[in-house]
Every structure is written in structure tokens, then in C-alpha cells.
Design brief:
By secondary structure, the chain is of the alpha/beta class. The protein has a single domain, classed as Rossmann fold, CATH 3.40.50. The chain has a five-stranded parallel beta sheet with strand order 2-5-1-6-7, with helices on both faces. It has a two-stranded antiparallel sheet with strand order 3-4. A hairpin with a 4-residue loop joins strand 3 and strand 4. It is globular and about 50 Å long. The two termini are about 15 Å apart.
């Protein structure tokens, strides 16, 4: 398929990138497709649960980014793909897959999508959502406790041991590759509208 626009939305955990992607998707419905880097966490079925919980999920090695790159290439070629999905309660891939249509616009969101050069080169528009650390940790606590069945102690422990240092080592430095920096993520209505306008222009 010619002229497929791949938009990447990066940013720290809890920055609002998922909300921004959801707001864009809400505007266009099935006219665009969305990929989530989180769905491409590596399968850990062969690892005991006590070892799975020790995985550093904020390090690039936790992701099967090669599969994601292959799927992006397939979408750009006009072929639908079956995206994996992730079971956060079991710390491994779920059995279910998600069909993603080869639309003219694909939005990819994830913390480390600007860190990998091969993946970055496939993005036509690179967006970084920049949100204060205190806001990000509060959002992460609310999300992980309410939606992912995590305890408060485990969320805080993971934040201090891996999330914060990995953000400083990999996520924050990738900001320099962004074409657009969006403060406060999905709550930034002006930035969201600018992105929507760009997509509308491409679809026409």
C-alpha cells in the first residue's frame, strides 16, 4: 500500500501517550489502526512466575521489537496483521491475538519506540509526550492498582528499581529524536487537534 503514514507516540510510563492515541483513534474510528509496543513484550511462558515478576519491563530487551518491525512492514505493504496481546496479571503473552487492519494511517505508542534506530526509521511522524515525573508516577499507581491488579508496594518498588532508572537511561534521551514534543499528553487538546488535522490531510 502506498503512502502509509506511521505515527509514533513515545513518552514515559504514565505520561499520557496512551490517552493521546485513544483520543486520536476516537476521532477516526476504523479509518486508522493502532499498535501498542506493550503488546510486544516477550513471551515468558517457559519462565516460572517468581522469575517473571523480576523482569525489567522498562528495558529494551523486554520487547520483541523485531516482530513489531516486521508487523509494521507488513502493514505498510497493505497486509493485515495479528498483533500479540499481553496479560499483565500473568506477566506473559495472552493466548488471544488482535487483528490490525492495514489502514492508510497507523499509530504506534510505547515508552521505547524512539530508542530503537530500526523502529525509529519507520516512523514518519515522531511524537514525544513530556509529563512531569510526579504526575507520571501517580498515574502509574492508579492504573496498575485499579486495572492490572497490582499492590501499591509492588508498583512503588518497581518504579524505584527499574521504571525511574530506565526512564533516565533510555526513554528521556530518546526525546531528542522527536519531531513534536507534547506536554501533558492526552489532556493537551491543541496538540491533539494538530495531529488529527495532519491525519485528516493525509487521508484526503
Amino acid at each position: 500500500m502506498k503512502d502509509v503514514l506511521i505515527i509514533g507516540i513515545a513518552g514515559g510510563s504514565g505520561s499520557g501517550k496512551t490517552t493521546l492515541a485513544a483520543n486520536i483513534l476516537e476521532h477516526f474510528a476504523n479509518r486508522i489502526s493502532v499498535l501498542r509496543h506493550d503488546d510486544y513484550y516477550k513471551c515468558q511462558d517457559d519462565i516460572p512466575m517468581e522469575e517473571r515478576v523480576k523482569t525489567n519491563y522498562d528495558h529494551p530487551h523486554a520487547f520483541d521489537t523485531n516482530l513489531l518491525i516486521y508487523h509494521i512492514d507488513e502493514l505498510k505493504a497493505g497486509r493485515d496483521i495479528l498483533s500479540p496481546t499481553y496479560d499483565y496479571s500473568r506477566h506473559t503473552r495472552a493466548a488471544e491475538v488482535r487483528e490490525v487492519k492495514a489502514n492508510k494511517v497507523v499509530v504506534l505508542e510505547g515508552i521505547l519506540i524512539l530508542e530503537n534506530p530500526e523502529l525509529r526509521d519507520r516512523l514518519d511522524m515522531k511524537i514525544y509526550v513530556d509529563t512531569d515525573a510526579d504526575v507520571r508516577i501517580l498515574r502509574r499507581i492508579l492504573r496498575d492498582v485499579k486495572e492490572r491488579g497490582r499492590s501499591l508496594d509492588s508498583v512503588i518498588g518497581q518504579y524505584l528499581s527499574t521504571v525511574k532508572p530506565m526512564h533516565e537511561a533510555f526513554v528521556e534521551p530518546s526525546k531528542r529524536y522527536a519531531d513534536i514534543i507534547v506536554p501533558v499528553g492526552g489532556e493537551n487538546a491543541v496538540a491533539c487537534q494538530m495531529i488529527v488535522d495532519q491525519i485528516e490531510k493525509h487521508l484526503k
